[in-house]
Design brief:
By secondary structure, the protein is mainly α. The protein is about 65% helix and about 0% strand. The chain has three helices and no strands. The chain has helices spanning about 10-20, 30-40, 45-60. Helix 1 (about 10-20) runs parallel beside helix 3 (about 45-60) and helix 2 (about 30-40) packs antiparallel against helix 3 (about 45-60). The radius of gyration is 11 Å and the shape is globular. It starts with 10 loop residues before the first helix and ends with a helix.
Length: about 60
């Protein structure tokens, strides 16, 4: 699957995508999470979840 064509439509997909994204240390910032959110998420509710969940996951990693 072409990673450029990934569209996130559910909270479960968002969690999986974020977990995979944050495996790479260069992606461990809110600016990277926000960039991926804009590229991959269309629905406002899922966008909000993606950003909130991303912040939570980042905090737990740095914790």
């Amino acid at each position: 699957m072409n990673p450029q064509s990934v569209t996130i439509e559910t909270e479960a997909e968002a969690q999986r995508y974020l977990a995979d994204l944050l495996k790479n240390p260069k992606n461990r910032s809110m600016s990277e999470i926000a960039k991926h959110c804009v590229l991959r998420v269309r629905h406002p509710k899922i966008k909000a979840f993606f950003l909130t969940e991303g912040a939570t996951m980042l905090a737990e990693m740095k914790g």
